[in-house]
Structures are given as C-alpha cells and as structure tokens.
Design goal:
The structure holds 2 protein chains of 2 kinds. Chain A is mostly helical. Chain A contains 14 helices and no strands. Chain A has helices at 2-10, 13-50, 66-76, 87-103, 122-132, 134-143, 147-178, 183-188, 203-216, 228-231, 241-266, 277-280, 284-305, 311-339. In chain A, helix 2 crosses helix 3, helix 9 (203-216) packs antiparallel against helix 11 and helix 11 crosses helix 13 (284-305). Among the domains of chain B are: 1-81, NADH-ubiquinone/plastoquinone oxidoreductase chain 6, subunit NuoJ (Four Helix Bundle (Hemerythrin (Met), subunit A)); 129-167. The termini of chain B are far apart. In chain B, helix 2 packs antiparallel against helix 3 (52-76). The relative contact order of chain B is 0.05. In chain B, 68% of the residues lie in helices and 0% in strands. Chain B is mainly alpha-helical. The chains are: A mainly alpha, B mainly alpha.
C-alpha cells in the first residue's frame, strides 16, 4: 500500500489529475450504463403490468438477467450497412447521439459535494449538449440512404428544434428565480423542505419542461421520429446489432438525464421533502435517486397510456402552446419579483 | 508546454483542419458537419480565453440550432457534384484574388505594432469566483441597453419579414381549427333520441323471424 502511495506521489501532477478525473468519469458512467440496462428491463416489466401481462420472466430469476441477454445478443449480431449508404457517417451517427447524452452528466450534482465538474454555467452546458443530440438522428437518417430513415430524421429535427426553445425558456424562468446557472446553487436555493421546491411557483414551467423533455428524447407519445406504424422504425430502421444498441443507450441515457434534471431543478434535488427526523436519516443521494425513479416511472406510464400525437399537433403544441406559456410565466415572475411585494414567492 | 497551451493548440489545429475541410470536401452534408466541428473547436478556443459563457452560447446557438437547420436544408437538396465543379475555373481568379487579399490583410494586421502579440498580452486570469455570465449580463443590460434593444427590434423585424414571406392564404386548402376541435362536446356530434322499439314483438319472434 505504501509503495503504491509513493508511486502515486512520484507521478507528475498533470497525470495525477488526469487519472483522478478518469476514475471519476468511470465511476459515473458505469452505474449510468447499468441503470440504462435496467431501465429497459423496468420499462418492459412496468408496461407489461400496465397492460396485464407479466413481461420478460425467462432469463434469470423473474427475468432479472434479461438486459444482459439482450446486450449479448445485440453485441454479437452483424452490423448490416446498406448499399449506397454513406459508410463513415452511418457508423459515426450512433456515436454522435451517445456522446452528448453521456457528456452532459459531467455537471450533474448527485449531492452537494458529489459532482464531477461544478461549473458556473452548468445549466447552459446541459442545454448546449442536449441540443447536440439531434445530430446523431439527422446523420443516421441521411446516411442510411433509406426514405423511411430520412423521413424520421426530418421529423425529429423539426421536433427537437421546436421543443428546445420551450425547454430553454422554461429554464430561463428557473434561473431568474435561482439567480444562478450553477446546478448546485439551484438545488441549494430549494433547501428547507417541500414548500421551498421550485415545483410550486414554477408549476407551468415544470409541466412545459417535463413534456418538452419527453418530446426531446423522442419518447411516446412524441415518438413520431420512429413511428413504427408509418415509417417502420424511423431514423434507425437500417441499424442492427451494436450500432442499434448505441442509439437505444443514448435514448435511455437522455431519459435519465431529463428525469435527473427535472428532479434537480424542480423537486429540490438531493434534499428530503421534510427536514425532520425520519426523512433526513436517508442519505441525500437516495432522495435524488428516488425522485429520478418517480420521473422515470412517469416516462414509462406516459408511453403505456397515450397514443402517438399527430405530427401537426406536436408542432402546434410546441410553438403555439408551450412557448407562449413560458413567455407569460417569465413575465409573471419578473413583474412579481420587482414590482410587487409578493416577490418572495419566486425567490 | 502547459495544459492550457496544449488545449489551445489542439483546438486551434482542429479548427483550421475543419475549416479547410468545409471548403474542400465534395459532399455538402459532410461540409456542414465539418462546419459544426469548426464551431465546436472555436468554442474550445474561447474557453481557453476564459470566455466560457460565449463558448457555451456559441455551441448552443450555432451548433444546436443554426447548423441543424443548415443540415436540414442541405440534406434535402439533391446536389449534382459534377455540375457544381463546372464553374470552378471561371471563379478561380476572383476567388484567388480575394484569398490573397485576405492573407495579406491578416499579415499586415498581425505584424503591425497595434495588433501584434506583444502589444496584446494575455489578460490576467480572473479569480475562481468570478462569473463571466453575471458580468456580461450586467454590462449588457446597463451600459449597452439601447444597442441591445435595437438589436432585439431588428431581429424581431427579421422574424416578421420571414414569416410574412411564407405566409400565403390558400383558399383551397382546408385547415383544422384546433380550438373548435378541442371545444367540441359529445352533444354537438351525436344526438340521443328516445323512441319506441320498431317491432314490439321482436323478443317473442326471435332474431331469425325477419
């Protein structure tokens, strides 16, 4: 042990920092990818029970090893590259969609101190990275040389551009209240229990944010990008094997990201709902985990409940409903904070 | 070489490589993707200059929105590459002159005393608590409030102009009116009337007795 420590001390400082960051990144990504695997299992089980089925129950006890089996199956399958597809872009599209989904986790605070990069502009960083996820979809649709994939990509691009604006405005309201773009500061502003959460004063923004999040991740009922009844599987129709799996991982990592962000920004992150004895015995990390789990359940519940939106209705909802709602609420926050004595509501 | 220098050279090299590829690569979709890479590398260079707000906004606006629309348009064009190359010799002299002029101008500016690296030393780094975003916000909404508002109005005018260009009524197209669709009640669509059974003896005669 001591020899190891002395060896560590001899390394140059830059390499020490690099190794330390690498270990931290692995410590975030490995549990994240495990969660992604088990979210797919949870999805199949929960939707199964909602539809009065049992869901996967063959591989391992109660089907617990099903994600592992799925992974192995997809991993060893052949990647079929269509004729006349643009080979380089076809291969790089899944990676383009996975990288932003994983890189955004760098600024997520799991507790007050457990955060890889405590950026002052964390919220903007998240917005910038989530807006880049669309490239994977567009490039996949174009490079596949398939009309279904192309239609899916175009739908997805228009949808993501539309909902990003609503999402950005919802977060503008939030940062007006918190007075910071730092995610740790935003959570700290909600300290003190349930009544301090931004969920209450920002309720319209919360709804807009979460629904836009569902639309941004191309999840049902906004999954026209892969609407299988019309365009087979949309942008990933030509993908198989591990390249298909990478798209899948990106989608679920994005769902987890949206759920975590909603918990951090509107449900007080790692804080317990009541700052009294039985509640604050539970470690902060588990509170965040529990809140994320609630949002993930809502994601799956929505998918099991609602039929798919029609495309023009999606566009109408984004442009004509959500954006005006957020603009009005931003005005309300501004007017209340600076022109009336009730500004403390939006503190 | 410090890490800062290393990252500067890395991002700068990536930027120059990507920018060169944008103008030399044949495939227009790939050219747009290289432009994305160029924006991204430029954002990286800005971060090394401690302009992190501008860097992230650059990624958010240019990479996240503008280039998506670019890609959207370029993807849908069916560009004939051989015809695209036809005018190359014709435009070469003018393009060459512009390029040479640009290089000369850059050389003059960078080698002069006013803009040389010696006259513009790296500004001292800010403390860790310094928030670039807050400072920028303060100066933008106080000192530069009027230019900011004027820029906003110009953008608004541009938006309205763009919309009015595409806005044309087509009487033959039938649009849905979502407001009336949503406000429809069941009583508007179906009417339940109570009436006597048509054949009072249907039960006793059975189904097949028609």
């Amino acid at each position: 042990m001591s020899t190891l420590l002395s060896l560590w001390g001899q390394l140059p400082f830059a390499i020490q920092v690099a190794i330390e960051s690498l270990v931290k990144i692995v410590a975030i990504l490995v549990p994240l990818l495990l969660m992604v695997a088990y979210v797919t299992y949870a999805e199949r089980k929960i939707i199964g029970y909602i539809q009065v089925r049992v869901g996967p129950n063959r591989v391992g006890p109660r089907g617990w090893l099903q994600p592992i089996a799925d992974f192995l199956k997809l991993f060893f399958k052949e990647i079929v590259i269509p004729t006349n597809a643009n080979r380089a872009l076809f291969i790089s599209a899944p990676v383009l969609s996975l990288i932003p989904a994983l890189a955004a986790w760098a600024v997520i605070p799991f507790t007050e101190t457990l955060v890889l990069a405590n950026l002052d502009i964390g919220l903007l960083y998240i917005l910038a990275l989530t807006s880049m996820g669309v490239y994977g979809v567009i490039v996949a649709g174009w490079a596949s040389n398939s009309k279904y994939a192309f239609l899916g990509a175009m739908r997805s691009a228009a949808q993501i551009v539309a909902y990003e604006i609503a999402m950005g405005f919802a977060l503008v309201g939030l940062l007006m209240a918190a007075g910071s773009l730092n995610l740790v500061e935003i959570v700290k502003a909600q300290q003190g229990g349930l009544h301090q959460w931004y969920l209450w004063p920002m309720f319209p923004l919360f709804l807009v944010y979460f629904i836009s999040g569902v639309a941004e991740t191309n999840r049902a009922p906004f999954d026209v990008a892969e609407g299988e009844s019309e365009i087979v599987a949309g942008f990933h129709v030509e993908y198989s094997g591990i390249s298909f799996m990478v798209f899948f991982m990106a989608e679920y990592a994005n769902m987890l990201l949206i759920a975590t962000l909603a918990a951090i920004m509107f449900l007080g992150g790692w804080y317990a709902p009541f700052d009294i004895a039985p509640f604050n015995w539970i470690p902060p990390f588990f509170w965040l985990f529990g809140k994320v789990a609630v949002f993930m359940f809502v994601f799956l519940w929505l998918r099991a409940t609602f039929p798919r939106y029609r495309y023009d209705q999606i566009m109408r909802l984004g442009w004509k409903v959500f954006i005006p709602v957020t603009l009005v609420w931003i005005t309300v926050i501004g007017v209340f904070r600076f022109l009336t004595p009730w500004g403390f509501i939006f503190r | 070489m410090t890490f800062l220098q290393f990252s500067f050279y890395f991002f700068a090299a990536a930027l120059i490589f990507a920018a060169t590829m944008v103008v030399t690569i044949r495939n227009p979709v790939k050219a747009v993707l290289f432009l994305v890479l160029a924006f991204f590398s430029a954002a990286g260079v800005w971060i090394t200059l401690e302009a992190e707000f501008l860097a992230v906004v650059m990624v958010l606006v240019y990479v996240g929105a503008v280039m998506v629309l670019f890609l959207f348009v370029v993807m849908m064009l069916d560009i004939n590459l051989t015809r695209l190359k036809e005018g190359f010799g014709e435009y070469l002299p003018i393009g060459g002159i512009v390029a040479v002029l640009l290089v000369v101008e850059m050389a003059i500016i960078l080698s002069s005393k006013v803009f040389g690296p010696a006259s513009m030393p790296r500004p001292p780094g800010q403390p860790e608590t310094y928030s670039n975003t807050a400072e920028l916000g303060k100066i933008l909404y106080t000192e530069y409030a009027y230019p900011f508002e004027i820029a906003a109005i110009i953008l608004l005018v541009a938006i309205i102009a763009a919309i009015s260009l595409t806005l044309r009524r087509r009487p033959e197209t039938r649009y849905q009116k979502p407001a009336s669709q949503v406000s429809v009640k069941s009583s508007d669509r179906i009417k339940i009337i109570s009436m006597d059974a048509e054949n009072p003896h249907a039960d006793s005669q059975g189904e097949s007795g028609k």
